[in-house]
Amino acid sequence: RNSGSGWTTLATVSSTSYVDEAPVAGTNQYIVIPYINDSFATEYQSDAVTATVNAEAVVLTVKAQENNVTVTWNTVSGATKYRIRRNDGTGWTTLQTSAKTSYVDTTALKGKRYTYVVYPFINGSFGAPSVTVKAALVGGSGSAAVTVVTTDGKAVISWDKIDGVKKYRVR
User: Fold this and answer.
1) What is the CA radius of gyration of the chain?
2) C-alpha distances in angstroms, 139 versus 26, 97, 171?
């Protein structure tokens, strides 16, 4: 995890998920490094995913993959639709307004970092936004597609299994 003061190794695990029980309030970045041929292969590490920890009602999950970014969120009581927005560093763009609770961003470019936010539509207006979650579109084969979800003051980091990898380092 990098909370602004450098990378800290959180764990080495054989599973494909890890719960950060004590993320720093504010912005936290995470990467996953696979263990290949008796060493941690940093050339195959995931791109950093970023999660902002706060207490908003909408729980947003962002999963950066090889050719897209999948964004999902929980159903909010009373919401009839949701607006998902993305910032690519040059400003916010509305991607979708619908009753769906997921969106696949196929326009995201490899290596570029994006920030996503979701607003629930309740009682005739858009309510408080979700936490903002940043993602980098993963490039290169062998990289782990990492997902981070923030809820109840914790960050849940998970990733796809890579064939032949027996353990992963979470930073």
Assistant:
1) 16
2) 27, 28, 19
What phi and psi values does residue 124 have, to the nearest 5 degrees?
85, 5
Least confident range from 17-21, 45-49, 106-110: namely 45-49
> What are the pLDDT digits (tens) for 40-84?
877 777 767 776 664 344 666 777 777 788 888 888 778 899 999
Reading phi first (left if > 0) and then psi (alpha if -120 to 50, else beta), residue 140 is in left
- Tell me, rounded to whole angstroms, the distance of Cα 93 from its chain centroid: 18
SS (H, E, C) the chain: CECCCCECCCEEECCCEEEECCCCCEEEEECEEEEECCEECHHHCCCCEEEEECCCCCCEEEEECCCCEEEEECCCCCEEEEEEEEECCCCEEEEEEECCCEEEECCCCCCCEEEEEEEEEECCEECCCCCCEEEECCCCCCCCCEEEEEECCEEEEEECCCCCCCCEEEC
Give residue-wise pLDDT tens across range 151-169.
666 777 777 777 778 888 8
Six token digits for residue 29: 């970045």
